[in-house]
Structure formats: C-alpha cells, structure tokens
Amino acid sequence: MSITAVPMKPIRRSVLMYVWIGVALALVAAAALAMQAPADPVTSFLAKNRHAKGVVETPSGLQYKVLSPGQGDAKPTDADVALVNYEGKLLDGTTFDKSQQPTPMPVTGVVPGFSEALKLMTKGSKYQFWIKPSLGYGDKASGPIPAHSVLVFTVDLLDFIPEATLRQMQMQQQMQMQQQQQQGGAPGSAPPAGAAPGAVPPGQ
Asked: Domains along the chain?
C-alpha cells in the first residue's frame, strides 16, 4: 500500500504575517474582555476606599479612619478588656449590631480585624474601621452577617483595663455579695418587713 503525497504550495511570507497579526489581535481582544469582566465588589470597594481622605490601611489590610483623637499614648493590648460603644454595619448600610450601653470586650475575644483596630486606639478616641472578610467572618455567615462581608464599625473607646484586674474586681464583688447574703438574717441587719429604712420599732 502506498501513500500519495499531495504537494503543497509554499506559504507566502505575507500570508504568515497576516496570521500572526490575527493571533495578536485575538490576544488583545481576550485581554480587553478580561478587563471588562465585573470585578469582585469587595476588592473593588477596598481598593477605592484605601484612597479616601483620612483612611489608613495597615499591612494586614485593615482600613481605619480617626474620627476623634483620644488622650495620651496608652493603647489596649491582648491582655486588656476594652469598654466601648460601637455600631456595626454592612456596606449597604444595614446595621447588624449596636451597643445599647458601654460594653466590655476582651481584646482577644473578637474577630481579628476588630482586635487589631482596638489596639490602634487611645482612651477617649473614636474610630471607623473597615474589616475585610479574611479579618472578619470570612466565607461563613454569622447571624445577620452574610459570608464574604466587609464589616464597617464606628467605635468609641471609653476605657480599658487588664483582664486580670477585671476578674479580680468581679471576684471581690461576688465575695461582698455573699457576705451580705450571709449577714442578711443577723439581728439588726435589716428593718422589720414593711418598716421604712431608719424607722424606730414600735415601743422603743
């Protein structure tokens, strides 16, 4: 069995040039389409927000803005409990959490971005934070917070003390309450039922 070779005419250089031009144009078109593809909204927001007036971005990617400076140079550490007023929102403006009164927060007992932000603040300061998903809840939803959410917090740092000191204060308070309960039945420890404080019992 024999194979008959079909002679092919030589390709002109001009034709090759047009082929390569076509390939180059196809690559350019593909790159243009890639650039026009919708970008991730979280990435787009953070890229734009880092250039907003007053916004600072840390090496971890946490973004913050000082709304009101505080007092002194001391800042919370991992060993502290911070007393704060706060409000947390999503990028669409939805409030997912808000303190009703000053709230104690262990610096290490919150998401990484919030912990890092607290350690930037001084007593009496007010900051706004933008916590990217990897420093917040990541790809997991948490209550009203969807997965892959940027958390926007406004925080007032009222005070902070070492967690060990707070625990000691709590223990002392519990001991005092126990002592008061034990002394509750002792003679003269409380006025008779229905008597006004400081009233003299009848017949005296």
From this structure: 44-164 (3.10.50.40)
